[in-house]
Amino acid sequence: MAERRTWASDRAAAFRCLLRLEAEFPGRIGIARAFAYGGAKGRAIYDPAVQPTEHRTAEAYLKSGGHTINHFYEKLLLLKDRMNTATGRAVAETRHAVMEDYLRHFYEEWEGDA
After folding, report:
1. Residue 91 to residues 7, 52, 83: CA-CA distances in angstroms?
2. Which one, of 38, 93, 104, lies nearest residue 71 by Cα?
3. Is the confidence at residue 70, as pLDDT, over 80?
4. How far apart are CA 70 and CA 22, in angstroms?
5. Cα(10)–Cα(17) distance, rounded to whole angstroms?
6. What digits encode the pLDDT tens for the residues 26-64?
7. Which sequence spans correspond to the domains of the chain?
8. pLDDT at 3 over 60
């Protein structure tokens, strides 16, 4: 589990959770936004030959140019453990489940099982 930072106040912790939930942690609209961004950057939707990578820095992540499905594993699915408030964690659990469900259906369709 990711280490949580110590916040100076509950308000700062709540604000950071809000930023993560709205800007970084997608629900259904955020999933669409991830693919729109990937398309605008010329990234493939998916390439099973390219596995997710653990990036040590934000710069390395931005330079990687991996496909959009990898973005879920390299960043989005990691955000659930970075929430700093109970409310943030509860919302994150729901959005995390939405992403996992989306990925399950994606792979079923990719493999022709849907």
Report:
1. 20, 25, 9
2. 38
3. yes
4. 20
5. 11
6. 678 889 888 998 999 899 999 999 999 988 887 887 788
7. 10-110
8. no
Judge contact between 69 and 106, C-beta under 8 A: yes
The letter for the amino acid at 99 is M
CB atoms within 10 A of CB 47: 13
Name the percent of the chain lying above pLDDT 70: 79
Cβ-count burial of 85 within 10 angstroms (0-12 exposed, 13-18 middle, 19+ buried)?
Answer: middle
Token pair recorded at residue 107: 């792979």
- With beta carbons less than 8 A apart as the criterion, state whether 2 and 78 touch: yes
Question: Tell me, which fold does domain 10-110 have in CATH?
Answer: Methane Monooxygenase Hydroxylase; Chain G, domain 1 (1.20.58)
Distance of CA 20 to CAs 12, 26, 87, Å? 12, 9, 12
Other C-beta atoms lying within 10 Å of the C-beta of residue 77: 16
- Residues, the chain, total? 114
